[in-house]
Design brief:
single chain, alpha+beta, six-stranded mixed beta sheet
Length: about 120
């Protein structure tokens, strides 16, 4: 079974397609403004683009892992997530507080999706 790597670099690929499954690397805001809501919007737009490039979309999400630098901002992230996620197609999900790679990063999201 072939493996397709999307936006592969020397350390990681942004997405890997194997069989009928797409695995996305943890996505962070490209322009990390000091707002959990705005960073979440940026990340979800990136996820939409990577899923499209892989041949699927958010309605096929299987699971999501969300990392917040400050869990007290859970509500801000959820407000954006709830407006974005496909109604009736919500994935299994976990949200945790974690120290992210750079101090200006407030949110990181990693998803797995099925192909059509």
């Amino acid at each position: 079974m072939p493996i397709k790597r999307i936006e592969a670099g020397p350390r990681m690929a942004q997405a890997v397609v194997h069989g009928n499954t797409v695995y996305l690397a943890g996505q962070v805001a490209g322009n990390p403004v000091p707002s959990v809501g705005e960073q979440t919007k940026q990340i979800l737009a990136t996820i939409d683009g990577l899923l499209k490039e892989a041949g699927t979309d958010k309605s096929k999400l299987l699971s999501a892992q969300i990392f917040l630098s400050d869990i007290s901002r859970f509500g801000e992230m959820n407000e954006v997530w709830d407006a974005w996620v496909s109604t009736g197609n919500t994935p299994a999900r976990a949200t945790i507080q974690a120290a992210l790679a750079r101090p200006q990063l407030l949110v990181e999201i990693m998803v797995i999706a099925a192909l059509d």
